[in-house]
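ok, trying the design again with the full structure, not the truncated one.
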Protein backbone atom coordinates (compact mmCIF):
# COMPACT_ATOMS: atom_id res chain seq x y z
CA UNK A 1 0.00 0.00 0.00
CA UNK A 2 1.44 3.42 -0.92
CA UNK A 3 2.28 5.98 1.72
CA UNK A 4 -0.44 8.56 2.11
CA UNK A 5 0.48 12.11 3.07
CA UNK A 6 -1.93 15.01 3.12
CA UNK A 7 0.37 17.53 1.47
CA UNK A 8 -2.34 20.10 0.89
CA UNK A 9 -3.30 20.32 4.57
CA UNK A 10 0.36 20.27 5.73
CA UNK A 11 1.29 23.05 3.35
CA UNK A 12 -1.70 25.12 4.37
CA UNK A 13 -0.90 24.66 8.07
CA UNK A 14 2.73 25.74 7.60
CA UNK A 15 1.71 28.66 5.43
CA UNK A 16 -0.69 29.83 8.14
CA UNK A 17 2.09 29.85 10.76
CA UNK A 18 4.54 31.63 8.45
CA UNK A 19 1.90 34.23 7.64
CA UNK A 20 1.50 34.91 11.38
CA UNK A 21 5.30 35.22 11.69
CA UNK A 22 5.47 37.89 8.98
CA UNK A 23 7.58 40.84 10.10
CA UNK A 24 9.68 38.86 12.56
CA UNK A 25 13.48 39.12 12.45
CA UNK A 26 15.78 36.57 10.81
CA UNK A 27 14.87 32.89 10.73
CA UNK A 28 11.83 33.58 12.85
CA UNK A 29 9.91 34.70 9.77
CA UNK A 30 10.76 32.01 7.22
CA UNK A 31 11.90 28.80 8.96
CA UNK A 32 8.81 26.87 9.97
CA UNK A 33 10.21 25.12 13.05
CA UNK A 34 11.52 28.39 14.49
CA UNK A 35 8.45 30.40 13.45
CA UNK A 36 6.10 27.85 15.02
CA UNK A 37 7.70 28.28 18.45
CA UNK A 38 7.82 32.06 18.22
CA UNK A 39 4.22 32.38 17.03
CA UNK A 40 3.04 30.06 19.81
CA UNK A 41 4.88 32.17 22.38
CA UNK A 42 3.45 35.34 20.81
CA UNK A 43 -0.09 34.02 21.01
CA UNK A 44 0.47 33.34 24.71
CA UNK A 45 1.64 36.91 25.24
CA UNK A 46 -1.35 38.12 23.26
CA UNK A 47 -3.73 36.26 25.58
CA UNK A 48 -2.00 37.59 28.71
CA UNK A 49 -1.92 41.09 27.20
CA UNK A 50 -5.69 41.16 26.89
CA UNK A 51 -5.95 40.53 30.63
CA UNK A 52 -3.26 43.10 31.50
CA UNK A 53 -5.02 45.72 29.39
CA UNK A 54 -8.09 45.50 31.62
CA UNK A 55 -5.95 45.93 34.75
CA UNK A 56 -4.09 48.88 33.25
CA UNK A 57 -7.28 50.68 32.29
CA UNK A 58 -8.83 50.09 35.71
CA UNK A 59 -5.76 51.58 37.45
CA UNK A 60 -5.86 54.55 35.05
CA UNK A 61 -9.52 55.18 35.83
CA UNK A 62 -8.84 54.97 39.57
CA UNK A 63 -5.97 57.47 39.27
CA UNK A 64 -8.19 59.91 37.36
CA UNK A 65 -11.06 59.60 39.81
CA UNK A 66 -8.67 60.02 42.75
CA UNK A 67 -7.16 63.18 41.25
CA UNK A 68 -10.58 64.70 40.64
CA UNK A 69 -11.78 63.74 44.14
CA UNK A 70 -8.74 65.27 45.81
CA UNK A 71 -9.50 68.59 44.09
CA UNK A 72 -12.88 68.42 45.82
CA UNK A 73 -11.30 67.63 49.19
CA UNK A 74 -12.24 63.95 49.47
CA UNK A 75 -10.14 60.82 49.02
CA UNK A 76 -10.90 58.15 46.43
CA UNK A 77 -11.74 55.48 49.01
CA UNK A 78 -14.12 57.75 50.93
CA UNK A 79 -15.80 58.81 47.68
CA UNK A 80 -16.31 55.23 46.49
CA UNK A 81 -17.55 54.16 49.92
CA UNK A 82 -20.10 56.98 50.03
CA UNK A 83 -21.22 56.22 46.46
CA UNK A 84 -21.91 52.62 47.48
CA UNK A 85 -23.74 53.76 50.64
CA UNK A 86 -26.02 56.03 48.58
CA UNK A 87 -26.64 53.19 46.05
CA UNK A 88 -25.22 55.19 43.14
CA UNK A 89 -24.12 52.51 40.69
CA UNK A 90 -21.61 54.14 38.36
CA UNK A 91 -18.60 52.13 37.30
CA UNK A 92 -15.06 53.48 37.36
CA UNK A 93 -14.94 53.91 33.59
CA UNK A 94 -17.94 56.27 33.64
CA UNK A 95 -16.71 58.12 36.72
CA UNK A 96 -13.29 58.68 35.15
CA UNK A 97 -14.93 59.93 31.96
CA UNK A 98 -17.06 62.36 33.99
CA UNK A 99 -14.01 63.55 35.93
CA UNK A 100 -12.03 64.20 32.73
CA UNK A 101 -14.64 65.50 30.29
CA UNK A 102 -17.42 66.91 32.48
CA UNK A 103 -15.88 68.28 35.69
CA UNK A 104 -19.03 70.25 36.57
CA UNK A 105 -21.10 67.06 36.62
CA UNK A 106 -18.42 65.30 38.65
CA UNK A 107 -18.40 68.17 41.19
CA UNK A 108 -22.18 67.85 41.49
CA UNK A 109 -21.82 64.12 42.08
CA UNK A 110 -19.20 64.69 44.80
CA UNK A 111 -21.42 67.34 46.43
CA UNK A 112 -24.36 64.92 46.41
CA UNK A 113 -22.24 62.22 48.07
CA UNK A 114 -20.70 64.49 50.75
Amino acid sequence: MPRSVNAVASHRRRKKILKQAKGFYGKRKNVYTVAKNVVEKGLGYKYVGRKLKKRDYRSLWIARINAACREEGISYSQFMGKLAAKNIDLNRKVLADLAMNEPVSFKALVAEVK
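Keeping the full-length input from now on. Residues 83 and 90 are 8 Å apart (CA to CA).
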